[in-house]
Write a structure and sequence with these properties.
The protein has 164 residues and is an alpha+beta fold. The chain has one domain: Beta-Lactamase (2-Layer Sandwich). It has four helices and five strands, in the order αααββαβββ. The protein has a five-stranded antiparallel β-sheet, sandwiched between helices. α2 runs antiparallel to α3. It is globular and about 35 Å long.
C-alpha cells in the first residue's frame, strides 16, 4: 500500500474518531491548560503502577472515568497490548478495539510500534511524532511516554517536544 495512502487513511480515521468522540470527550475543558511532557511521564508511571496493583478490570475503568486522577488538563491514559490492540483511550473511546501497530507519522515511521519495542526491552520509552491537537485544530509535535505493565503498554502524551 503506498505510504501517502496509508497516511491519508490514518488521518481520516483519526478525524472520524475525533468527530465520534464529539463534545463529550472534551467536557472538562482540557484546552484551558495543556499538560507538559514531564506531567505526561508522571501520569503514565502512575497509571502503570495502578494497573499492576489493581488489575485490568478496575484500572481500565478508572482510566476511562472523567476527572483529574487520570485525565488532568489535556492529558489522558491510553493502553494497548503487545499486538497493538487498544484497550483504553481516556479521551477518544472510539479508538478502543482498534489496532495502533500500523499508526504512522508523516514520514511513514511506525512510531508507536517503535516505542512499544523499546518499552518491551527497557521498561519505558519516549516517542515524538506529529498528532492532531483538537484544542488547536492542527497537527502539532507530541511527546508520549510509554510504560510496560505486564502484558500491556500504558501511554500518556503531551503536545510539545520533550525538553529535559
Amino acid at each position: 500500500m503506498p505510504t501517502a495512502f496509508r497516511s491519508a487513511t490514518g488521518i481520516l480515521t483519526l478525524l472520524l474518531f475525533v468527530w465520534l468522540a464529539g463534545s463529550q470527550a472534551w467536557a472538562y475543558s482540557p484546552c484551558e491548560r495543556p499538560g507538559t511532557p514531564l506531567e505526561a511521564k508522571a501520569l503514565a508511571e502512575k497509571a502503570a503502577a495502578h494497573l499492576a496493583k489493581v488489575g485490568p478490570g478496575k484500572a481500565f475503568n478508572d482510566f476511562m472515568s472523567r476527572g483529574d486522577d487520570y485525565m488532568p488538563f489535556d492529558l489522558y491514559v491510553f493502553v494497548f497490548d503487545q499486538t497493538g490492540q487498544m484497550w483504553v483511550n481516556g479521551r477518544f473511546p472510539g479508538l478502543i478495539g482498534s489496532n495502533i501497530a500500523d499508526a504512522t507519522d508523516g514520514n511513514g515511521r511506525r512510531f508507536l510500534l517503535d516505542a512499544m519495542r523499546k518499552a518491551a526491552n527497557e521498561g519505558s520509552a519516549w516517542v515524538e511524532y506529529q498528532w492532531y491537537n483538537p484544542c488547536t485544530g492542527t497537527a502539532m509535535p507530541k511527546s508520549t511516554h510509554i510504560v510496560r505493565s505486564g502484558q500491556f503498554f500504558v501511554g500518556v502524551g503531551a503536545y510539545g517536544r520533550l525538553s529535559v
